[in-house]
Write a structure and sequence with these properties.
Layout (H helix, E strand, L loop, with lengths): L4 H5 L9 H11 L2 H21 L3 H24 L5 H24 L5 H23 L8 H22 L5 H41 L2
Helix pairs in contact: 3-4, 3-5, 4-5, 4-7, 5-6, 5-7, 6-8, 7-8
Length: 214
């Protein structure tokens, strides 16, 4: 087994984060876009609590507001020249938390069948595993067109599903909105696997290049 290069450089001992590294972390996390991403994670948890506690319309509105911050954090990062690697991590993390929490709530209220959550989690863990392997080799897998469309469709689906369930829409419109939300979720899952195939192709290329050098 080959020794870890970072441990070798440190006399065989595990490498400990330096004070300068922590300073960089705290500097990056306090940027406006990253604070917005952190606020989105907090808002997601409050949204779930409100909705499950019976405050469905306030929960839905807060959830929509939280979803909108996903648009503004990227825009602010570019506008304020505050793009960071930590920002990309927080953005993916907040999307994963929001989608997982919302899908779990959909299952709790029987708005979607369990297979939707199974398919979603299988794809996400597949991509996470590929990204971890690639990151360990100082490489990255860029976001794809279909990955962004997947996020858009899934988020829009949640608005439709919970708007119908919350009673915000009455009459025949309620069923129509629910069906639109359901259809968007199917589209989101299709887009997620299309983007997953693209990510895995990039992973396979990086894996082949890395292993051929050993």
């Amino acid at each position: 087994m080959l020794p870890d290069s970072a441990s070798e450089a440190n006399g065989g001992r595990p490498q400990v984060a330096s004070h300068d590294g922590l300073t960089k972390f705290w500097t990056d996390i306090q940027t406006v876009p990253n604070m917005l991403s952190l606020s989105r994670i907090a808002a997601i948890l409050v949204t779930a609590w409100l909705y499950l506690a019976g405050y469905r319309v306030p929960g839905l509105l807060l959830g929509i507001a939280a979803g909108l911050t996903d648009i503004f954090d990227g825009w602010l990062a570019r506008k304020l020249n505050q793009s960071t690697e930590l920002g990309a991590i927080l953005d993916r993390l907040s999307d994963l938390i929001m989608e997982t929490v919302a899908l779990t709530c959909c299952l709790y209220y029987a708005l979607l069948p369990p297979i939707f959550l199974v398919l979603y989690l299988c794809r996400e863990w597949m991509v996470v595993s590929a990204r971890l392997y690639v990151a360990e080799r100082n490489r990255s897998i860029p976001s794809s067109f279909w990955g962004k469309r997947k996020t858009n469709l899934v988020m829009a689906s949640f608005i439709g599903l919970f708007a119908a369930h919350s009673g915000l829409i009455s009459g025949d419109g309620n069923e129509i909105v629910y069906k639109i939300g359901y259809s968007m979720m199917i589209g989101g899952l299709v887009a997620s696997y299309l983007s997953g195939a693209i990510y895995m192709r990039s992973f396979a290329q990086i894996y082949s290049e890395s292993e051929s050098k050993r």
